[in-house]
Design a protein that fits this description.
Elements: E1 4-7, H1 10-17, H2 21-37, E2 46-50, E3 53-60, E4 63-72, E5 76-84, H3 92-105
Parallel strand pairs: 1-5
Antiparallel strand pairs: 2-3, 3-4, 4-5
Length: 109
Amino acid sequence: MNWTIDFYNERVHQEIKSWPNDVYADFLHLASLLHEHGVDLRMPHSRALGKGLFELRCRGKEGDGRAFYCMLTGRTIVILHSLIKKTPETPPDDIRFARKRQKEVKHEK
C-alpha cells in the first residue's frame, strides 16, 4: 500500500515547482520513492531530523533543495516547508519553521 503525499498549503507546492528544473526533477523522482516507501526511505534520499521530522534531499547541477516533511496516521506524508540551500548547513530557522508546522498538522501544543 502506497503513501499519500500532501502539501502544507499551495504556497509550499508552488515554491517547490519554482525550483530550478533539475532540482525539481529530482524532487519528483524522490517524491515517487517517498510515495512508494514512506518511512523506509533513507539516506541519501531522506534524512531524519528527529522527533518525526524528515528532509527530502533533492539535488541538481543548479543547487540543492530541501523539502521538510512528516508522517501522519493513515499513511499520509505532509510536505511542510521547502528551500533551495545557499549554505552547506540547513539553516536552523528553516528547521524550526518546519517543526512549528509539524506541530500544527499533528495538532500538538
